[in-house]
Design goal:
heterodimer, A: 243 residues, mainly alpha, Cytochrome Bc1 Complex, Chain D, domain 2, 13 helices, 48% helix, globular, B: 552 residues, Cytochrome C Oxidase, Chain A, 2 domains, two-stranded antiparallel sheet, 2 strands, disordered C terminus
Chain lengths: 243, 552
């Protein structure tokens, strides 16, 4: 073995090839099967895609680095299931490009935060967390209420998501800006199109409490309120024993 | 700098800057409604700055042919200064974000000042800015000494250094504006990622062209590690960053993978960024500068071989230990755990090889703070790899994951291993490169050493405490069988530790500032005429000390 190495380390190209081959094996064996083994991701026929407003909210969540302190992955541990709800299934993040499972909980897990708090609470909390949770060390995101949401290019965003595998229809892509406005303005003509395209269960609300202009707050709250609600799979399929 | 380029190289440089300006202007125009326009201007300005520097030196006479009988060290010199500056910036932001967790109102109601945007400025600043520049600077120095061949040309090393730092600037300024892919340690968006690939290909070409022209029959062990660093980081970077941009005029892109496949790819990348950026590259550094400074050959050639291939093979399996108890299939979690535990063998072989090399030179470790930095780095490397294998065990991970324990572990490695070996190596290298008899102040190196050590220990102990407390509070049940603590209870318990870690970080940062001052003063102190010939001048005629013993 050492004699072989004695020869190998005299050959630069051979050494380069050896490194590439040896280093590729582990990743190949662990990653490639995840795309081919069917059981990796469960089936969830009821699963819907994110609406344009939720996509925009998700992008703001990414922009502000929320993932640095909040996970979206409930582990198969008893205390986590009791604290946050049923453990996360792979299918629940199958439209998440990229995933936001996170690696650190400076704040709590958000995988099932949707529906746990009212829109008013969410808006107040994002505007200044210490107004509703005095002990919180989360930054205040006051500009979310001030900033108008950029909606004109949401169709392009949906098209790009379709290119990586999310099943958006042509109609969804064409109506993306209108649907974003409609979802945040329930009493307008635009609202009907949202439930028509994304399902009756889609939350159409005054997320930030104001009619009319769509703010970044509308988008973030809409996104947070849908977390854990794209599919009921975690609630309907029996969960395995937790540890 | 320009006067060292040959006529052809000056033309190549001119075209490079021209292409850069064109791309920058195109991005600025095409993305005028988007943040990519701002980065277009940054790229154009970088190109214009380069072009101005080039024009000012364009008419200088061609470099003398005598240069070919000397090593080409100016890019390494610039890289050392950049390393130290990025170190201060990255660590300063680190102290700042640590303070934000204790005092969250310090954001001035500004978007760029929030924890979420500043945190990647800290991580990229120290990993890529500080660590990356240190690796480029030292690798080009070690490569020439251990092959006894000069770099193949004068332009490409400057291109790598300039291009890499442009990438770092795009990354850090992007985070402040909210440009991020959200992939940890791979946050820069698609255009910056493509640019890094271009830079990296040139970096690899320098390496391989120099190796092909080597005048030593064997490739020295430090170069194995530097090559593994360059090759595997390229592989990881390209696959993990596969994405579809919204359009050529948008910063935003959507990752090619989603959900569980994306998570596995991300942590295959993330853990091996630790392995091949923060471990392999710095082991390359250790394998050259530690024996050189100690004046001892590497203890065991065979241990070097076993640990090198062990690390190269096994690390690539270990990433899934970041995903224990998640929706990742169980078989992948188990593989990740098994390989993480076995990884302790090659890791400790490396650490042991370094410490055993010091046998016979322990009196130098006592007297010389520079060598002590390297010795301490090897010890922290051993400790952090032991802790890493331990934390990869599922049952331990159930407690440690998502808590500050992970942060403490990372900093034991980053401060204790990566930063210590870097400062030790740069302190050794600076007098050699600038042909000075010694550093400006040995006393300041002592100060730096003790500040760095105490800062690391305070930081790591604070995070161990807070992490274990946090993990235990989350899983504590009361007598009636319900969870005993709310999440906020655990957050309140963290407060004193967040202050302690800020203090630890501040001590480490003070050391980094001292290092910058000491090295700048070393360079600015004029060379004493008498000592010039006596100093360790890296000419071709000098035998590269560690090569022969390690090759047996």
């Amino acid at each position: 073995m050492f004699n072989f190495h004695y020869r190998l380390e005299r050959n630069a190209i051979g050494f380069v090839i050896a490194i590439i081959v040896v280093a590729s094996i582990g990743g190949f064996i662990e990653i490639a099967p995840l795309f081919t083994i069917d059981e990796t991701v469960e089936k969830a026929p009821d699963m819907r895609v994110y609406t344009p407003l939720e996509v925009a909210g998700r992008n703001i969540y990414i922009r502000e680095g929320c993932y640095a302190c909040h996970s979206q992955m409930i582990r198969t541990l008893r205390d986590e299931v009791e604290r946050y709800g049923p453990y996360s299934l792979a299918v629940e993040s199958k439209y998440d490009h990229p995933m936001l499972w996170g690696s650190k909980r400076t704040g709590p897990d958000l995988a099932r935060v949707g529906g746990k708090y009212s829109n008013d609470w969410m808006t107040a909390h994002l505007n200044n967390p210490r107004d509703v949770v005095p002990e919180s060390n989360m930054p205040a995101y006051r500009w979310l209420l001030r900033n108008q949401l950029k909606t004109d290019d949401l169709g392009e965003h949906l098209a790009a998501l379709r290119a990586v595998g999310v099943p958006y229809t042509d109609e969804m892509i064409a109506n993306a800006p209108k649907d974003a406005i409609g979802q945040a303005n329930p009493d307008t003509d635009l609202a009907a199109g949202v439930t028509e395209r994304y399902g009756d269960k889609t939350d159409v609300s005054l997320f930030d409490g104001n009619q009319g202009a769509v703010t970044e707050m509308d988008a973030v709250v809409a996104y947070l309120q849908v977390l854990g609600h794209l599919t009921d799979a975690a609630h309907t399929t029996p969960q395995n024993e937790v540890e | 700098m320009i006067s060292q380029l040959t006529g052809i190289e000056r033309i190549v440089a001119a075209f490079t800057f021209l292409i850069l300006i064109c791309f920058g202007v195109a991005m600025a125009a095409g993305g005028r409604d988007d943040l990519i326009g701002t980065h277009g201007w940054v790229i154009s300005l970088a190109g214009i700055a380069g072009a101005i520097a080039l024009l000012r030196g364009y008419d200088a006479p061609d470099p003398s042919p005598d240069r070919l009988s000397e090593y080409y060290d100016d890019p390494s010199k610039a890289g050392i200064i950049l390393t130290l500056i990025w170190g201060v910036i990255g660590m300063l932001v680190g102290v700042w974000v640590a303070a934000l967790l204790a005092w969250p109102e310090l954001t001035f109601d500004a978007a760029w000042a929030g924890f979420g945007r500043l945190r990647p400025v800290h991580t990229s600043g120290v990993i890529f800015g500080f660590g990356g520049n240190a690796l480029i600077a030292t690798s080009l120095h070690v490569l020439q000494r251990t092959t006894r061949a000069r770099l193949p040309d004068q332009f490409s090393p400057w291109f790598v250094l300039f291009g890499y730092n442009l990438f770092c600037v795009l990354a850090a300024s992007g985070y402040l504006m909210g440009i991020t892919q959200s992939k940890e340690y791979a946050e820069p968006e698609w255009y910056a990622d493509i640019w890094l690939v271009v830079v990296w290909v040139v970096y690899f070409s320098i390496y391989i062209r120099t190796l092909m022209r080597r005048k030593e029959p064997h490739i020295y062990v430090a170069n194995w590690y530097y090559m593994a660093f360059i090759l595997v980081v390229a592989l990881l970077h390209i696959i993990n960053n596969l994405a579809v941009p919204v359009s050529l005029g948008h910063v935003k892109s959507y990752s090619a993978f989603s959900g569980v496949q994306d998570a596995m790819t991300q942590w295959w990348y993330g853990h091996n960024a630790v392995a091949f950026f923060l471990t392999a590259g710095f082991l390359g550094m250790m394998y050259y500068y530690l024996p050189k400074r100690a004046g001892r050959p590497i203890y065991s050639y065979r241990m070097s071989i076993i640990s090198f291939w062990g690390i190269t093979f096994m690390y690539m399996w270990a990433g899934s230990h970041h995903l224990h108890y998640t929706a990742l299939p169980h078989w992948v979690q188990s593989l990740g755990m098994a390989f993480s535990v076995v990884l302790l063998v090659p890791s400790w072989a490396s650490a042991g090889n370094a410490l055993l090399t010091l046998n016979g030179a322990w009196h130098k470790v006592r007297d010389d703070a520079v060598l002590r930095f390297m010795m301490l780095a090897a010890i922290f490397y051993g400790l952090a790899t032991f802790e890493g294998s331990f934390m990869a065990i599922r049952a331990v991970n159930s407690l440690s994951h998502y808590t500050d324990w992970t942060i403490g572990h990372v900093h034991a490695g980053a401060l204790g291993w990566v930063a210590m070996i870097t400062y030790g190596s740069l302190y050794a290298l600076t007098p050699w490169l600038w042909k000075r008899p010694a550093l400006y102040s040995a006393k300041l190196v002592e100060w730096h050493f003790w500040l760095a050590l105490s800062g690391t220990v305070i930081y790591v102990f604070a995070m161990w405490n807070s992490g274990v407390i946090q993990g235990l509070m989350w899983r504590t049940y009361n007598d009636s069988g319900t969870l005993n603590y709310t999440f906020v209870d655990s957050l309140v318990a963290m407060h004193p530790y967040y202050i302690a870690r800020t203090i630890g970080g501040l001590l480490f940062l003070s050391g980094a500032v001292i290092a910058l001052y000491n090295i700048v003063m070393t360079i600015r102190t004029p060379v004493p005429a008498a000592s010039e010939s006596a100093s360790d001048i890296p000419f071709v005629f000098e035998p590269a000390a560690p090569t022969a013993p390690a090759g047996e």
